[in-house]
Design brief:
This protein has about 130 residues and is an alpha+beta fold. Helix content is about 50%, strand content about 20%. Strand 1 (about 20-25) and strand 2 form a beta hairpin.
């Protein structure tokens, strides 16, 4: 089992657009930050979407007019979008929880005590290290 690089994960989460994010599943599949919106810009370039439309805080969009997804691909991309949106809040929470549990474990080990309960994760790590 490889060690999690919590600092690297935390840096990625900190650099990402603020959350919460949501998945908007419709004719296209979008992952948006809470403030995402599409605005029409009055540029005079009607018919050139790249210059006439501006989206803010859009994280991901799949399935627009340029291509179509079949039903199985659509369902998978929709599930991926839901996961991406949920991850924005879940990853920082999981990092915080892992750090809290590691601190508790370290406090017990400093006292020279054995942990009161061996978890499934501890057992799996021992087996992976050949200490079973």
């Amino acid at each position: 089992m490889t060690e999690l690089d919590l600092d690297a994960l935390e840096a990625l989460a900190s650099a990402a657009t603020e959350g919460p994010w949501d998945a908007d599943i419709g004719t296209s599949i979008e992952v948006n930050a809470g403030t995402a919106r599409t605005q029409w810009n009055e540029t005079g370039d009607v018919g050139i979407p790249a210059r006439s439309w501006r989206t803010t805080d859009r994280i991901l969009e799949v399935g627009n007019a340029e291509f179509e997804l079949d039903e199985a691909d659509y369902d998978q991309v929709a599930a991926d979008a839901e996961f991406i949106a949920a991850s924005r809040e879940a990853v920082p929470a999981l990092i915080a929880r892992v750090r809290e549990l590691e601190a508790q474990r370290d406090a017990v080990l400093v006292k020279g005590e054995e942990p009161m309960v061996e978890t499934k994760a501890d057992t799996a790590l021992d087996e992976a290290d050949g200490r079973s």
